[in-house]
Amino acid sequence: MSKSSQPLASSKHWLRLAQGSYLSALALLLIWTATAARDTSSWFQWLLLLPLLLPAVGLLQGKPYTHAWSGFIAALYLLSSATAWWVYPDERVIASATILCLLAWLLGSTYFARYRGRELGLGLKRPDST
Predict the structure, then answer these.
(1) Closest CA to 60 of 111, 114, 118, 21
(2) What are the residue ranges spanned by the domains of the chain?
(3) For residues 70 and 8, what is the distance between their CA atoms, to the nearest angstrom?
(4) Would you say residue 1 has pLDDT above 50?
(5) How far, in Å, CA of 78 to CA of 91, rounded?
(6) Cα dist. 124→57, 101, 114, 116, 117 in Å?
(7) 3-state class (DSSP) for residue 128
(8) Tens digit of pLDDT for each residue in 71-125?
(9) Which of 39, 45, 123, 127 has most Cβ atoms within 10 angstroms of its Cβ?
């Protein structure tokens, strides 16, 4: 198969989307934390970014299991960003960009784990219907 005729369901495409959007979300959240003027203490805001670093190694190495569970972390930051979008109208531009990156990360990681797991023969086995 030539490169141009590879199906969209190839795990490589989803891996690139997941990795790129993870790094973009990480950068945006770092910038957002550095520039946000909130009532909470500064060290607490930086502490909230630590869970985002937990899946970094596995995501960048392309490990399907890490991509599968990293969606839970993406969902937490997605909820936080959506809440901030609603509560802080002055921060809606960066919140919107962050939400888009987090959605792309969630989608990319989910489909990468699915297709890469199929390529490796992993996954749940169906019970015999006999």
Answers:
(1) 21
(2) 11-120
(3) 22
(4) no
(5) 15
(6) 25, 29, 11, 14, 10
(7) coil
(8) 999 999 999 999 999 999 999 999 999 999 999 999 999 999 988 888 887 766 6
(9) 45
The rounded distance, in Å, linking the Cα atoms of 34 and 29 is 8
With a threshold of 0.70, does the pTM exceed it?
yes
Contacts of 102 (CB under 8 A, 6+ apart): 21, 25, 74, 77, 78, 81
Instruction: List the structure tokens of 108.
Output: 């990319």
Q: What is the largest CA-CA distance in the chain?
A: 63
* 103/95 Cα distance (integer angstroms): 12
* Encoded tokens for 98: 């962050």
Name residue 122's amino acid.
L
State the first-to-last Cα distance of the chain, in angstroms, to the nearest integer.
Answer: 38
Alpha helix positions (H), 1-130: 11-35, 42-47, 50-53, 56-61, 64-87, 92-120
